[in-house]
Amino acid sequence: MGRLIYRMCLVVVLVIAVAGGIYYYMTFYQKEDAPQKGTFVDRMTAPDKNFSGQVKASVKEVKEAFGYMGKETKHATAQAGSAAKDAARQAFAYAAGTAKSTAQQAGEAVKEAAKDAAQQAGEAVKEAAQQAGETAKAAAQQAGEAAKDAAQQAGETAKDAAQHAFAYAKNTAGDAVVRAEEAAEEAAAQIHGKIKKVSGQV
Predict the structure, then answer these.
(1) Cα–Cα distance between 21 and 19 in angstroms, integer?
(2) With contact defined as beta carbons under 8 Å apart, do 69 and 14 qualify?
(3) Please, are residues 16 and 69 in contact by the beta-carbon 8 Å criterion?
(4) DSSP state, residue 48
(5) What Rg do the C-alpha atoms of the chain give, in angstroms?
């Protein structure tokens, strides 16, 4: 910013110097009368008595011109400084507004990103829960089918065991009946024999 002000001041000084030279030329040199017939001869033969006064007046006018130039330079410098300050203020205000707008846009972008991330996370959780439910349902169906198969196999095994037990009990009961009949026959034979013995003795 300091270099910009310095360059602007140099440009203003150059412009004022050129303008002052043109103003001095237009003001002082063009006011002199154009050379007329016999003017230079009269001046050479009879020098003007007011030449020193004219020189003093010219010096005074030059001083006034330089003073005016200095005032104009000072004024232009002040204007350049004020313009530079205004430009700096405007640049700062523009930068602040741009930064604020950028911050707001960044905040909105962050909010949108967070919202999208939350929505995506919710959808992912929902899909995961749905997949977990489907997996649990499939596992329950498989477990039910396995339990059904196990129950069916257990029923068949129990039926086979009951049939075997019934057959074994039947066979065992038959053997017991046969043995009981044989024992009864033997007992009857023994009783009959004893009766015969007793009858023979009598």
Answers:
(1) 5
(2) no
(3) yes
(4) -
(5) 68
| CB of 80 closer than 8 Å to CB of 9 | yes
Q: pTM score, two decimals?
A: 0.33
Contacts of 19 (CB under 8 A, 6+ apart): 72
* Residue from 20, 26, 4 nearest 75 by CA: 20
Which of 23, 19, 39, 20 lies closest to 31 in space, CA to CA?
A: 23
**Cα(165)–Cα(145) distance, integer angstroms:** 29
Q: Is the Cβ–Cβ distance between 80 and 4 less than 8 Å?
A: no
**CB-count exposure of residue 23 (10 Å: 0-12, 13-18, 19+):** middle
Q: What's the pLDDT tens digit per position in 161-191? A: 888 888 888 888 788 888 888 888 888 888 8
Which residue has tokens 């063009």?
A: 30
Asked if residue 127 has pLDDT above 60, the reply is yes
Amino acid letter at 108? E
